[in-house]
């Protein structure tokens, strides 16, 4: 994706020029403008790719539909027209949900204060307030910078005062999640203001609501992200510890899973969040003690046909396997065969291949007994098949190389059978194709007993070979 940005007006002018100067029809004019800017490396993800209505008779420029809808909403708010407000909130929210470009254009043209005012205006009307919060959530999706301190306070107040209302809770949590994704300051502000007990409390209070449980678990996970490139160091690790130690997060999530044994979407979300909370040895062990491992293994077995679920479960198993004692529990639970089956059954899916190899890699680390189980279960062959299926996926290549190394580093008897599977050529090819694979590939080849040539790099200087 391009890194250059342009204004909506610049794009609109280019489209209009194509229509007037080159006599293109509207659709062709838009396509040509898109091609023109993208060829120059311009990121058009925030641009409405449509023809703006023609200027009025007095020459005044017309607005895109989303801005016309915003104007109607703004008038209803300014006039406190409670009869018209629901219709305009509904229309504006629907257009915001269509695509990021629409809500970005609205956000750049003063939509947030209008929607915030609508939330304040609707405070005494539960149904209208629900609609206003849903509209705020739609506007914030992909635009966390819009939310200010007063907006944070309003959302928190609603979550506290209406905690027994499942629909209002869901709307508030969606606002929190959108506001915290890729925004470290909002995360820290919400955590300091007490959002974590509200999220875990929502899961307990509305444990029979799939939407609330799934969304609250997702919001908890977002609090553990480190995805804001504007901030050098976030509080992801601290937030994860707070969720577990101060809010009993592991127990809350695992208990919630019991109500949704047949809902793969909810269980997948809970697994994903548990994997983000596995930041300490004792947390990994607690997940096992609370029954979390059993539900993960059962979920993997029951949902093998659902790739999204499989990927999340493999990621969670990989995370909890950071504890050496838990490694043994995972193998004893029969997860190894299921992981190999997942790789084989979803060989065309690079994410599953990566997570599957990574999970086996963790299980094999410092555990010769587990290596024997993995070998007997076909783990090495599955990893090599994944390498063969995804030669351009560096993550798959790296995880497979590390798995092979872990299998043979303390069990050299496995070297010959693995080499007979064609490992040397695949690992050598990975090393040649991906600079990021060099170290792990070289280590795997060395421990397999292969001759390893040090890679020579051209530095561009006199005598310019560097090892």
From TrEMBL:
Key word Ribosomal protein present: no
InterPro entries per record: ARM-like (IPR011989), ARM-type_fold (IPR016024), Armadillo (IPR000225)
Record's protein name: ARMC6 protein
The entry's keywords: Repeat
Highest taxon above the source species: Eukaryota
Any one GO BP annotation for this protein: hematopoietic progenitor cell differentiation
ARM repeat copies, ranges: 291-335
Coiled-coil parts of chain: none
Gene from which the chain derives: Armc6
């Amino acid at each position: 994706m391009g890194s250059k940005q342009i204004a909506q007006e610049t794009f609109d002018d280019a489209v209009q020029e194509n229509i007037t100067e080159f006599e293109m029809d509207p659709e062709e004019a838009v396509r040509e403008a898109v091609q023109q800017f993208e060829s120059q490396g311009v990121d058009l993800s925030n641009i409405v790719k449509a023809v703006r209505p023609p200027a009025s008779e007095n020459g005044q420029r017309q607005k895109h539909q989303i801005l016309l809808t915003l104007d109607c909403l703004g008038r209803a708010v300014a006039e406190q027209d409670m009869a018209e407000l629901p219709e305009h909130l509904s229309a504006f929210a629907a257009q915001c949900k269509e695509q990021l470009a629409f809500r970005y254009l609205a956000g750049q043209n003063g939509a947030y204060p209008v929607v915030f005012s609508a939330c304040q205006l609707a405070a005494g009307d539960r149904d209208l307030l629900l609609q206003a919060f849903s509209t705020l959530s739609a506007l914030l999706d992909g635009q966390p910078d819009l939310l200010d301190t007063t907006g944070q306070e309003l959302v928190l107040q609603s979550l506290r005062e209406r905690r027994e209302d499942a629909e209002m809770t869901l709307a508030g949590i969606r606002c929190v999640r959108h506001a915290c994704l890729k925004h470290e300051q909002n995360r820290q502000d919400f955590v300091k203001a007490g959002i974590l007990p509200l999220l875990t409390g929502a899961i307990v209070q509305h444990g029979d609501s799939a939407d609330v449980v799934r969304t609250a678990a997702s919001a908890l996970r977002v609090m553990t992200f480190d995805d804001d490139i504007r901030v050098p160091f976030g509080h992801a690790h601290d937030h994860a510890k707070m969720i577990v130690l101060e809010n009993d997060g592991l127990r809350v999530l695992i208990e919630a899973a019991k109500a949704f044994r047949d809902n793969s979407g909810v269980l997948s979300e809970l697994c994903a969040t548990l994997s983000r909370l596995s930041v300490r040895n004792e947390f990994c062990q607690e997940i096992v003690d609370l029954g979390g491992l059993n539900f993960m293994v059962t979920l993997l077995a029951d949902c093998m046909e659902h790739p999204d679920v499989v990927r999340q479960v493999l990621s969670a198993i990989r995370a909890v396997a950071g504890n050496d004692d838990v490694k043994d529990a995972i193998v004893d639970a029969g997860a190894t065969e299921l992981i190999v089956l997942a790789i084989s059954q979803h060989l065309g899916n690079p994410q599953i291949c990566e997570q599957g190899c990574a999970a086996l890699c963790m299980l094999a680390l410092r555990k010769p007994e587990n290596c024997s189980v993995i070998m007997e279960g076909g783990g090495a062959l599955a990893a090599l098949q994944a390498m063969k299926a995804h030669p351009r996926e560096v993550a798959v290549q790296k995880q497979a190389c590390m798995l092979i190394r872990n299998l043979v580093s303390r069990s050299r008897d496995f070297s010959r059978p693995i080499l007979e599977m064609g490992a040397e050529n695949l690992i050598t090819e990975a090393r040649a194709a991906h600079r990021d694979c060099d170290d792990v590939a070289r280590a795997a080849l060395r421990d397999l007993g292969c001759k390893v040539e040090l890679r020579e790099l051209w530095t561009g200087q006199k005598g310019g070979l560097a090892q």
